[in-house]
Design a protein that fits this description.
alpha/beta, 4-stranded parallel beta sheet, 3-stranded antiparallel beta sheet, 158 residues, 7 strands, globular
Length: 158
C-alpha cells in the first residue's frame, strides 16, 4: 500500500479543483503534481492562462494559486505497480472536504478517465457533486495532441 505523499494545493480563493488519480513514480519522487517531464499538464496550464511556464515547485504552486486552481488526487492510498493506472487496487479516497470546506469551488474537473472512474466510484457518493472528465495530460494519452488538449481544457477558465 502506497500513501499519497503530496499535500493538496489550494487556498480560500480557489474556484476550480483539478483531480488526478494518484501520483506517478516521477511525481512521488519530485514530491509535486505532474512531475513526469513528459506530462503536458504544466505546458497546458501555461497555454490556457497565457502565462509563463512554471519551472519549479514554488513557481508551480504560485501559478495554481494565482489562477485560483486547486489540485489534488482522488486517491489517498492504494496498491499500484510503478505508475500503471491499470494496476491500481485497494483504493482509499482522499477527503476532498479539506478543500471544499475552505474554498468556494465552482467546478471539479478530473484529469483523465482513470481519475473519473475512481471519482465516480468513491468520491461522488460522499460529496454529491459531479465532476467533468477532461482528457488526460499523461504522455500515455498520445491520441490527444497539445492543440486538442488546449481546446478541451479551456473550459476550466470559462
Amino acid at each position: 500500500m502506497i500513501t499519497h505523499p503530496i499535500p493538496p494545493v489550494y487556498d480560500e480563493n480557489s474556484k476550480v479543483l483539478i483531480l488526478g488519480s494518484f501520483p506517478s513514480v516521477k511525481s512521488r519522487e519530485a514530491c509535486f503534481f505532474y512531475g513526469h517531464p513528459q506530462n503536458r499538464f504544466w505546458k497546458l496550464m501555461a497555454a490556457i492562462f497565457e502565462d509563463k511556464l512554471p519551472e519549479n515547485i514554488e513557481e508551480k504552486r504560485a501559478f495554481l494559486l494565482r489562477h485560483n486552481i486547486a489540485v489534488w488526487d482522488v486517491i489517498k492510498s492504494c496498491d499500484i505497480t510503478g505508475s500503471s493506472d491499470a494496476s491500481i487496487r485497494n483504493v482509499v479516497p482522499n477527503d476532498l472536504g479539506i478543500i471544499l470546506n475552505a474554498a468556494n469551488i465552482r467546478n471539479i474537473y478530473v484529469n483523465g478517465k482513470t481519475a473519473y472512474k475512481y471519482y465516480e466510484k468513491y468520491t461522488k457518493p460522499l460529496i454529491q457533486r459531479d465532476a467533468i472528465c477532461l482528457p488526460s495530460t499523461s504522455p500515455a494519452n498520445a491520441a490527444w495532441n497539445m492543440e486538442r488538449l488546449v481546446s478541451e481544457w479551456k473550459v476550466i477558465i470559462e
